[in-house]
Design goal:
With 329 residues, this protein is of the alpha/beta class. It is built from 11 helices and 15 strands.
Length: 329
């Protein structure tokens, strides 16, 4: 028996309940961990509200990231033993493998032995943000030294991860945020430049920063009307990678900019990295190296207790956080 967070209908944070449930032992190819910390993601709020790419089956669990101690392993698992300190690469289905629980079970290929000095809270804040940013910037866009990358929603955990990864590969990170309130924090996080999209002329600011070379890579979580000025400031042959859709407004296709500059506009889900063993192995190596040399350092916005999961979800939806929200058990 163990406590787990479940919900029986779609809705706001108040639909979440903590219940005691039976937890079966891990099956073949699975590892069960005693969870010490959870990393919260916007995807979990979307599942809860019924607007995620996956459908909940009631009563439904949820959660994509965890860190803890191996409790038990499936019969054929030889790479982990009880007592190992591990963290979790997000599963393809959080309904099938939910993380919000005292005991959680995952496929063995998603279990990682992270640097022990990281601690449980930071380890729970690693994999979604860094895999998402790495997959877009390094695996797909081949971001490198001398490139300029514009990063929207830059104060999110993925945005901060993208800034750190850009710096690690020698690129120039331009952080876009709605107002100048987080300007200092974004500079401290490693952004070379900060653009306040509600206060600045996005195109003019990006063109002033990038000069004649233009912005080769745009990493966007927002969509909406900003597509026009973002693409206008891009370099010929540049690539815009869309991984979100936070704007409630329609996203116009920037036909003129796309045609005249031969731009690539590409949708992206981190699942394409996670489901490809070779690409996932390369991503894990890059991220673990960055954690070890401290060029990648998870930023924790706020920590909540497991018993305060409803309040943690309210904070998740406030958009006031800078970095990752973590829940401890």
């Amino acid at each position: 028996m163990a406590r787990a967070v479940r919900f029986y209908r779609h809705g706001g944070p108040d639909v979440l309940r903590i219940e005691t449930i039976d937890v079966p032992p891990p099956a073949t190819g699975e590892v069960q961990i005693r969870v010490k910390a959870l990393g919260l993601n916007r995807a979990e709020a979307l599942l809860r509200r019924g607007t995620y790419i996956e459908r909940a089956t009631f009563p439904s669990g949820l959660g994509l990231e965890a860190a803890g101690i191996v409790e038990a392993v499936g019969d054929d698992v030889t790479s982990f033993v009880p007592g190992d300190i591990v963290s979790i690469v997000p599963p393809l289905s959080m309904v099938r493998w939910p993380a919000y629980a005292e005991l959680a079970t995952f496929p063995v290929e998603l279990i990682v032995k992270h640097p022990p000095e990281l601690g449980f809270k930071k380890a729970a804040a690693v994999w979604m943000q860094y895999l998402t940013a790495y997959g877009a910037l390094v695996d797909i866009a081949r971001l490198g030294r001398g490139d300029i990358v514009a990063i929207t929603a830059a104060s999110s955990s993925v945005g901060i991860a993208a800034i750190q990864i850009a710096n690690r590969v020698g690129a120039t990170a331009v952080a876009l945020t709605r107002t100048s309130a987080k300007l200092g924090a974004l500079r401290d996080a490693g952004a070379a430049h900060v653009v306040a999209s509600d206060e600045d002329d996005i195109r003019a600011r990006l063109e002033a920063i990038a000069g004649s070379n233009g912005v080769r890579v745009v990493f966007d979580a927002v969509g909406g009307p900003a597509f026009e000025p973002l693409t206008a400031a891009m370099s010929p042959g540049g690539i815009l990678i869309e991984y979100g859709g936070l704007s409630p407004e329609p996203t116009p296709f920037p036909l003129f900019n796309a045609l005249t500059k031969s731009l690539v506009l590409r949708g992206y889900l981190v699942h394409e990295i996670i489901r490809d063993p070779a690409r996932l192995a390369q991503a894990k190596s890059f991220i673990l190296d960055g954690l070890s040399d401290r060029t990648l350092q998870p930023v924790i916005a706020r920590t909540f207790r497991f018993e305060d999961i409803v309040e943690a979800h309210r904070f998740l939806e406030s958009n006031d956080q800078f970095g990752k929200i973590v829940v401890t058990i």
